[in-house]
Specification:
The chain is an alpha+beta fold. The chain is built from 17 helices and 36 strands. The strands form eleven sheets. Strands 1, 2, 3, 4, 5, 12, 16 and 17 form an eight-stranded antiparallel sheet that branches. Strands 8-9-10-11-18-15-14-13 form an eight-stranded antiparallel sheet, with helices on one face. Helix 11 packs antiparallel against helix 12, helix 11 packs across helix 14 and helix 14 runs parallel beside helix 17. The chain is elongated, with a radius of gyration of 26 Å. The N and C termini lie far apart (56 Å). The relative contact order is 0.09.
């Protein structure tokens, strides 16, 4: 079959007389989750720029791996005399069709809405995944002076893992099954069938199976990955309106949407209830999109997706992000539920860093995920108030105790408490902290030994256990934890505190300390229970403010360090080498704000300065991930965004701040 790419469909990537700048419009990405681990995601022009973009992306039964099923529709509107496209696609050397020429606006709230204005016609397209099931609704509202108008839709199907690409192949089954008001396709027997149902207009479907060859994804290309694939289309759906009105198309996995209009209205009502008001500042914008990260796995456990479009659930990310995503929005019960759901996954004092389809396939390569639980539980306890006391003693207390006892006894990943009370973890071949990038098979940022934030989190955990034992009236146990706490405090101040520089080292090892100036010391200065005095917290903040603070978060290394990387870009190896060597991470701003309040207090001037730090993120909410803050930014100005366009711990920690 010939590729359906008109040879004349070319377009300049920079600017057009119509006023749409493709480069900017394609940089704006959005995502809406369905609460089950699936999502819809694309750009403000509905032109995919990443392989993970799609209108219906969902995990398949028995696996946590997401698959792209419906990539997009090729769309056009036809009248008696004129026809014009709505969609946009990228192919080698050309754009086709040129639907961006009529593009007028995009908004995310309350759900993704796209407006096209062409002559005397206005077409509004809305996209909304169904909550709690793997389905998506697409609605087109047509307004015109000329009737009738026909909306012509050609679904483009990927049917492959979200992180992979597909190509034309003889194994695909092009057949379809017609049903009332729609049709069903199942290109591969190993994947679920996709059901299409239309409502609101006279309709006809013409079977016309063909492949769209060499579809290109520009962001993948920029990141050094393969960036072309072939998409299959089973045919063309035509929906004709004789007067102003709306047409609705529902695509679903496994079973059809039986009452599409009713279920669309339900989905709209639920969406409005979660974010009733249009965002007006950074806090309300992040609160309006925070639910995209929350999902329930097949067993009904509440979890957190670490980021879009390619991350799944990570233990460390979940526990850092969860307090901000829930407690900062008054969702105390949800926070407790998510924390409780993690308890059965504790093994030898560790939580999995990456959750697979089940516990047997999880990745246990993190020493700190379980330590972050102590901090998340404490934040929940403070938010819940007196009602949390029994739950702390009966459930979370024993879990935290099991973590501490396992660390004292020693566990895998090289985790152990040394004679100085410092928590050792990792090895020269293994980074067990959050700075875990690797290149050529070895850690880019070697942090084996007593990493400062791991020691600080360990101190936080044993202080928490001492307090719980006192509240339970067990003075003997409280004394044991008190002695351990004092030893850890003494060890941190002797081995990690640098008296001449008035700050903390990043890692201590018997052969010497790594004195690199990194933001991990800010975590130690921010925690409620810390071995640092107020004066030492202040000293840490001064160094961080001078060398690490940017409008987009904290650098991972001081620019004065010879190992500093100013830019996060290039292929996978180049990005990994820069990932924790100067690249800015926005989530760290939450700890900077908390440490600043503990060090300098909540004076009006200090609060105003910290609020300004938060509002610095406002421009980022529209430039890349709409309503989100990108995963990372360049260390040097102008701090170009990189990584994922939506990251849970960024949203959570900025909300908490």
């Amino acid at each position: 079959m010939a590729p359906p790419i008109p040879g004349t469909a070319t377009a300049d990537l920079t600017a057009h007389p119509e006023g749409v700048r493709l480069e900017d419009a394609l940089a704006r990405e959005w995502v809406v989750g369905n609460g089950r681990g699936g999502y819809a995601s694309s750009t403000s022009l509905l032109c995919p720029t990443r392989r993970q973009h799609g209108l219906l992306v969902a995990p398949i039964p028995g696996s946590a791996r997401r698959h792209v099923f419906l990539s997009r529709f090729e769309e056009s509107v036809h009248g008696e005399e004129h026809s014009f496209p709505l969609s946009l696609g990228r192919y080698p050397g050309c754009w086709s069709p040129l639907g961006h020429r009529g593009f007028a606006s995009f908004r995310l709230h309350p759900w993704p809405t796209f407006v096209h204005k062409i002559g005397r016609a206005e077409i509004t397209r809305e996209v909304l995944p169904a909550h709690g099931r793997h389905a998506v609704f697409c609605r087109w509202t047509l307004r015109s002076k000329v009737w009738p108008l026909t909306l012509r839709l050609r679904p483009l199907l990927a049917f492959r893992e979200a992180d992979s690409l597909t190509s034309e192949n003889p194994h695909l089954d092009p057949r379809l099954h017609r049903v009332q008001d729609g049709f069903i396709v199942q290109p591969y027997a190993s994947l679920p069938a996709l059901h299409f149902v239309a409502h609101g207009a006279a309709q006809s479907f013409q079977a016309d199976p063909l492949w769209y060859r060499r579809v290109q994804y520009l962001r993948d290309q920029e990141r050094g990955y393969a960036s072309e694939e072939d998409l299959f289309s089973p045919g063309v759906l035509e929906l004709t309106l004789s007067e102003e009105g709306s047409v609705l198309v529902a695509a679903s996995l496994g079973e059809s949407i039986e009452a599409p209009l009713h279920e669309w209205e339900q989905a709209c009502s639920l969406r409005r209830s979660r974010a009733p008001e249009a965002p007006t500042d950074v806090a309300t914008a992040l609160a309006a999109t925070a639910d995209e990260f929350l999902y329930r796995d097949p067993r009904g456990r509440l979890g957190v997706i670490a980021g879009f479009p390619w991350f799944g659930e990570w233990g460390r990310d979940t526990l850092i992000a969860l307090p901000g995503l829930t407690l900062a929005r008054g969702r105390v019960a949800e926070c407790e539920e998510a924390l409780s759901g993690l308890l059965p996954h504790l093994r030898e004092g560790l939580l999995p860093n990456v959750f697979g389809a089940d516990q047997a396939t999880s990745d246990w390569g993190s020493a700190d995920a379980s330590l972050w639980m102590a901090r998340a539980v404490r934040l929940w306890e403070r938010a819940a108030g007196p009602a949390a006391r029994d739950r702390m003693q009966q459930s979370f207390g024993p879990a935290l105790r099991s973590i501490a006892e396992a660390f004292l006894a020693g566990t895998h990943l090289g985790v152990k408490v040394d004679e100085h009370g410092l928590l050792q973890a990792g090895s020269p071949e293994l980074n067990a902290s959050w700075m875990d990038a690797r290149a050529d098979g070895v850690p880019v940022t070697p942090r084996h030994g007593a990493a400062v934030e791991l020691c600080a989190l360990w101190y936080f955990l044993i202080t928490q256990l001492e307090r719980l034992a006192l509240e339970a009236g067990d003075r003997m146990e409280a004394r044991q934890w008190m002695e351990q706490r004092r030893r850890t405090r003494r060890g941190m101040l002797e081995k990690l505190w640098m008296p001449a520089e008035r700050r903390l080292a990043d890692v201590w090892r018997p052969e010497g300390a790594d004195t690199s100036l990194r933001p991990n010391m800010v975590i130690a200065a921010a925690l409620e229970f810390s071995p640092l005095s107020r004066g030492k917290r202040t000293d840490v903040l001064r160094h961080a403010g001078k060398f690490l603070l940017t409008p987009c978060g904290l650098r991972t290394l001081s620019p004065d360090d010879p190992a500093y990387h100013a830019r996060y870009g290039g292929g996978p190896i180049e990005r990994d080498r820069a990932y924790h060597q100067g690249t800015v991470w926005p989530w760290l701003i939450g700890f900077y704000v908390e440490a600043h309040l503990r060090a300098f207090g909540p004076s009006p001037a200090n609060l105003e300065r910290l609020r300004d730090l938060i509002e610095n993120f406002a421009p980022q909410l529209e430039r890349h991930g709409v309503g989100h803050v990108s995963e990372v930014f360049d260390g040097d100005p102008p701090h170009r965004a990189g990584g994922t366009f939506a990251q849970a711990w960024n949203s959570g920690e900025i909300l908490r701040a």
